[in-house]
Structure formats: C-alpha cells, structure tokens
Amino acid sequence: MTFVYLIVIIISFIILGIVAIEMLEDYYFDKRAHALTEEGQKLNNTIIDYLNRKVNYGTLKNELNSIEKFLNAKIWLIDKQGYIYGVSNETEGNWIGKQVSTDDLVKVLKGDVMVKRGEYDELFGGPVLTVGVPIFVNGIVVNGVIMHSPIYEIDETLNEIYKIILYSMVISLMIVLIPLYFTSQRISKPLREMNKITKIIASGEFEKRLNINTNDEIGQLAKSFNNMAGELEEIEEKRRGFIADVSHELRSPLTLIRGYIKALMDKETSDDKKNEYLNITYEETERLSELINNLLDLSKMESGNYPLNLTTFDLNELIRRSIIKFGNKLEGKDINVEVNFREDPIYVSGEKDSISRVISNIIDNAIKFMEREDSLTILTEIKNNKAYVYIKDTGCGIPKKDLQNIWKRFHKGDKSRSRQITGTGLGLSIVKEIIKNHNEEIWVKSEERRGTEFVFTLTLSTNTK
User: Fold this and answer.
1) Phi first, then psi: what are they for 129, rounded to 5°?
2) CA angle, corner 333, sides to 331 and 334, nearest 5?
3) Domain for residue 343, yes or no?
4) CA angle 454, 460, 465 (to 5 degrees)
5) How many beta carbons lie within 10 A of that of residue 251, not counting itself?
C-alpha cells in the first residue's frame, strides 16, 4: 500500500511539476516579451525625432545602447523596405544597410507586434526571443524595431526556478512519506489481522474476534466482521444442537422399536402382548415419519424453496373444519370450546393448507397442555385491513423464561411431563415459518397457570367468493 501510494504521489508530483514548469516558462517568456514590447514602443518618439532630424544618430544610439544593457537585447531599427539603419551595439555596425526579409517582418511592417522563439536565421548561434514592434507616425507604420534577447539567459533563470521546484518536491515527498507510512500501516495492519482471524474461523474456531476499536471504515468493517463471526458461532451452535436434538429424537423411538421387536421375537411372548407391541411399534414408526416430514418441510421453508399457492378462502370456515377435526380430543378432555367471529365470512389470501396447518398445530399444542374442563377460545376480527386470529386456552401457561424459545426446533414445554406429551417439538417452528413466508406476523402472550394466547394476522382478499 505504501508503494502504491508513493507511486501515485510521485506521478502526481511529476504531472504537477511539468504543468507548473510549462506555465511558469510561458509566463516568464510572456513577461519578457511584454517588457521588450514596452521598451520598443517607448522608442517610438525618439525614432520619430531622429527621422525628423530633431536628434542626431548619436543620441538615438545611446538610447538603444542603454536599452540593450538594461534588457540584454540586441536592437535593430528597420525602415519600410526591411533595411537595417540602426543597431544598439557598435560591434554590429556591419549589419547597417542589410535587408531583413522574413514573414515576421512583413507582420511588423503591417502594424502588428511580432513575438517568436527559436533560431533567427542562424545569426546568433543559438535560440533567441525575438520581438518586433512597429513605429507609427500619425497612425501610419514608417519604421520598425526588432529586438533579440538570448534565451540562454532566460533558461538559466528558469533552471534555478526548476531546481527550487525539484527540491521542494523532494522535501515534500520525504515529509509525506512519514504520515503515508503510518497511514498505510493503520489500514494494512487490521486487514492483516482480519485475514489471520478469517483463516482461524475458516478452520472452525468461531469464537475468535478482531480487537479493533476505531470509528472509521476499518473499525466499522471490524465490527461487521465480529458480528458475522458471532452469527457464524451461533449458527454452528444451532447446528450442533440440531444434530444432538435430531439424534435424541430419533434414538428414543428407534430404541423403543428395537426393544419391542426383540420382545416380538421372543417365543414366550403371548399373542395379546405381541399385538400390543405391534401397535406401539406402529405408533413409533408413525412418529418417526411425522418427524422426518416435519424436518423436510421446515428445511424447505427456511431455505425459501417452499412455494406458496395463494388462493382466496373463508378463514372462519377453515377454523370450523379444524375444530371438527379435533372433536375427539376435545371431548376426551371435556374442553369447552368458544368461537366468536366478529364478521362472517372473512375472506383472506393465503395458502389454505398451510394456514390450516398453522391453526391445527396451535390447537393441538393447546390441547396437550390443558387439563380436563379447561376452555379454548377462538376469535377472528378485522382491523386495519388485516384479519386477526386469536386462539386462547386456559391451560398451564408458558414460563416467562421459555417464551423466547417456543419457536425453536425441538423445544418442548413442561419437561416434567415430556413423556406423557407426544409430538416432535417442531410444530410451533413450522407455524412461525409458514406465517413468515406469508409476510405476516404471529405473537404469543402467556401467564403460568392462567393460559396462553396465540395471535396471527392474514391479508384480506379483494376477491370474495
């Protein structure tokens, strides 16, 4: 990361340096050309006086010489035909009378200022900055001034500036490297730790956690990682618990079946006993089959592979049929059933068989935990465009500590009576998943020795049959 950041910074510095140098160079040449142009324009009056013979050539020459020393520029005076009639330095007197004929001079003699960089007809042995300024009399170009400033002098000044820029960049880079290193370490260290912990968790040690306490993005990632690790640990605990529960639930009926089959194989067992053992064995195989089917259904529901065939049906009629189905069990305990439909019929949208299963599981669960002559109350009503179903019993109730566990697989209340209470412990888990798959809600209220009430919602149907 440090290397990548460093490369990015160096490239940025190089681009910035190149742009700055180009801009500085253009700015410096522009300023130089502007200074030469100004001085050339200041010569306008002196040259006009010379042409009008108000001053002699010596005075003009002295002024040209002063400007040359001030700007370090060679100055030529040219007439309209391009002939040189004045120079700023006596050593260049041999140029007087020579004609300069270039496209740039044509531009000057037309009244425009000319600026160019580079070789000038190979006269100066190196690149120069050339500026041409027209001389006006009454708005008419009569002469021109050509000034040549050697570029090497400008380059020397720019080179010093380039050195300053380069040194500044190097110093800045060295200063930046310190926080850059610590910043990259601050990012890469927790990532390395995260990578290490990930490998440990992948090997099965789900209790490992990251010890990163910051409020930045890395800290947030660490918190999410720890949450994920916690969930994985919880899933692993549930998996182990599930395997243990399944093993226990399968072991009990299999042990009974094996025992009774062994008894059946005993020649001394009477026919009456054999029939009794066969009935018990059949009941246990039925319980095993129910357990396996419930497990498969619950697994499909939790994985989302349990498609719903939504239809419109009368909820009240479905409840009536469910109560009739449990008629024998209800009469066996002399349970008083009270049904109150605030509106009848109530048409809802859902999978009829699944909702029937929800109602049946809750009623069956209630019957198991009720004593003789207890009461079962079922109520339906419509609130806020939803159908509400209330199923309340006056049974033994659910202890507060067990309320949060009733939806878990294989959870069975009243452990002291677990042998007398049949079931797989999956009924309420299936109820929860069915209601969840319908995007509805279900909740429970309970008090020990006072009873339990289950409430769930269903969506009203716009179609009525």
Assistant:
1) -100, 115
2) 60
3) yes
4) 120
5) 10
- Amino acid code (one letter) for 138: N
d(CA 119, CA 125): 8
Domain containing residue 364: 311-460
Cα end-to-end span (Å), the chain: 68
DSSP 78-121: EETTSBEEEESSGGGGGGTT-B---HHHHHHHTT--EEEEE-ST
* CATH code of the domain covering residue 385: 3.30.565.10
pTM, full prediction? 0.49
- The 3-state secondary structure of 371-389 reads CCCCEEEEEEEEECCEEEE
pLDDT at 418: 44
Task: Give the three-state DSSP class for 338.
Answer: strand
Q: Is the peptide bond before 345 cis (omega within 30 degrees of 0)?
A: yes
Closest CA to 169 of 10, 6, 7: 10
- Tens-place pLDDT, residues 403-440: 877 877 766 655 444 444 555 667 788 888 889 888 99
Question: Which tokens is 428 given?
Answer: 């309420």
